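User: Sequence recovery, please. Input:
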């Protein structure tokens, strides 16, 4: 029997990259995957690809920078699914000014970055609390190695997300809901390759203690599966680095 047979998993930012890999991994293990993204066209293509492979899946379009959209998404999920076994808060802003800027961004940009990367996972957990509790479910927040040394707006939003993760674990423990985060290192995706270029990719990969390759979407998807499986069921209230020992965790050398 597949590890996730009969379970329902919601993955945000699932139209491509890490999110799509996570959704596909859970679907391959027998789960019904609910794919969420703001890009309706790419989301439809991703859904079609999974369905063609025989997966049980559905999709919902949502803008996670908008609370009304988050609430509408949660209402649709609660109507369609009595319980929710896993919520993967993968969607986020990662490239461009958020990854290089700090001073001079202004309140509006900071509010937008924090809304998407930090507060949307909190609000989704809140609005999906009932089906998560009914399943004794798991929340996985997508953090980053940048949360260890938050020198950019991106790093700050992810460091704040770590704090939200710990708070959610504490708040929801009495309802049987676990909450953890994954902090990926350098991941080789279409978005990272386009945004960073070969030189930056090589430099960041070289910071790993095991620098033979950058991480892959499969590395993160498999970590999610482990956390959601029976074997990972005693893990709670943590940020799991999946980064080949990246030196951004400076205390490790």
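Assistant: Recovered sequence (253 residues):
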């Amino acid at each position: 029997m597949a590890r996730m047979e009969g379970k329902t998993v919601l993955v945000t930012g699932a139209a491509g990259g890490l999110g799509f890999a996570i959704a596909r991994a859970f679907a391959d293990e027998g789960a019904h995957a609910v794919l969420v993204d703001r890009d309706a066209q790419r989301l439809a293509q991703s859904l079609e690809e999974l369905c063609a492979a025989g997966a049980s899946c559905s999709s919902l379009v949502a803008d996670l920078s908008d609370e009304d959209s988050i609430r509408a998404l949660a209402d649709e999920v609660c109507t369609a699914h009595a319980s929710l076994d896993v919520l993967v808060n993968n969607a986020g802003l990662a490239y461009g000014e958020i990854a290089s800027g700090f001073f001079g961004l202004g309140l509006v940009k900071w509010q937008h970055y924090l809304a998407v990367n930090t507060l949307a996972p909190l609000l989704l957990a809140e609005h999906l609390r009932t089906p998560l509790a009914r399943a004794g479910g798991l929340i996985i927040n997508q953090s980053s190695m940048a949360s260890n040394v938050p020198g950019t707006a991106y790093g700050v939003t992810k460091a704040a997300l770590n704090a939200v993760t710990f708070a959610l674990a504490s708040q929801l423990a009495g309802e049987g809901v676990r909450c953890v985060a994954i902090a990926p290192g350098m991941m080789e995706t279409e978005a990272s390759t386009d945004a960073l270029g070969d030189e930056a990719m090589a430099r960041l990969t070289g910071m790993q203690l095991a620098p033979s390759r950058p991480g892959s979407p499969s590395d993160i998807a498999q970590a999610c599966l482990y956390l959601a499986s029976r074997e990972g069921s005693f893990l709670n209230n943590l940020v799991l680095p999946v980064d080949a020992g990246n030196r951004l965790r400076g205390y490790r050398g």
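The mean pLDDT is 94.
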